[in-house]
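Reviewer 2 asked us to include a model.

Predict the structure of this chain.
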Amino acid sequence: PAPPSPPNPIAMPIMDAVPLLDSATATILASVNKYTIQQHVKWLDNCIEMPNTYTVYNFQTNQAIMRINEVSDGCTRCCCAPNHSVVLNFDALDPSGRELFPVMTMERQGCCGKLCLGEIVCMECCANEAFFHAGKVEGKAGELDKSRVFGRAKVPIPFAGGFTPVIQVMDRDATSDHHFASVKGPMCFGGCSELCCSVPFTVKKVNKDGSISVNVGDVATITKMKPKSFADAMRELLTDSDLYELEIHDLSLSAQQRASLVGTLLLCDYMFFERDIDACSYNVFTKELKISLCNCFCLGKIIPCQCTCGGDDKERDS
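Predicted model (C-alpha cells):
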C-alpha cells in the first residue's frame, strides 16, 4: 500500500524577539483578530471619580476574555483625572467570567510626576507614556520595575503630532525598543460629536528605516464607537462608559504586539475620552449651560469647542 501522505504543516505563530508573556496569554491574544472593549458603567462617577473597569471581548464570539481593573490613588484621581497616575491590571477570564490569572500590567505616570501633562507637548514632562509589563507587577505608577516590560506607547516630542494626535507604539527586541507602529487620530472628536460619529484611530506600520507606511490602517484600526441606541446615548451623556473596537489587519503581529495595541487603546481612552461631563455641563453659580460641540487637538493639548447659554452676569462678575 502507498505510504500515508504527510500531514499538512501547521502554521506557527509569530514569535516575539524577547518573549515575556506566558504561553496561555500568548495563545489567547494570537487567536483573536477583533476585540470589543467595554468600559463599565459606574454611576457614582457623577459624584466622585471612581477607578475604571473594562472588559475585553472576542468580537466574533462575544466571549469575555479579559477584565481590566484600574489601581490609583483616590486623592489624585479625584483632583487630577484624567491626568492622574494609573496602574491597570489585566486578568484572563474563563467562560463563566471568573478571573483566572494575571495577563499584563499597564503603567501610566500622571501629572504628579509629569507636571505639564495635558498641556502643549514640548518636553518629557508634558508627554503621555504607558509601559506594558508581562504578568502582574505591583507598585506605584512611575516606580514599577521595568525588567518585564515588553512594549510601550508614547506621544512624540515635540508637539505630539501637531494638529492630529499621534502615539508611537514600541516593541522590545533583544537590545532596545523597536518602533513598530504609529497610531493617528482625527483633529476633532468628543463632545456632542461622539453621540453621532464613531472616532477612528488608524494604526500604521513603521518600517525598519523609520519611514511610516502609506497604507492607512494597514496594521490595525482602533475605533471609539458611537451609541447604537437612545439608552447608549444616555449612557454616554451621563457616565464615563465608552465602547471601543480594535481590529487587527496585519495577522503577522506577535502576541506582545497585539497586547501593546490593546494597552494603547486604553491610553487613548485616558488621553481623549475621560473628560467628565464632556458633552454639556451646568454651572449652578453662574447659571450657565455649556455645550461642547467637539474637542480639538492642538500640539498635545485638548481645546473644547463650546457654546454658552444663559448665565447671571452678576454671579459671573463676582
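Residues 5-13 have pLDDT under 50 and may be disordered. The helical segments are 23-30, 74-80, 230-238, 255-272, 313-317. We have added this to the supplementary material.
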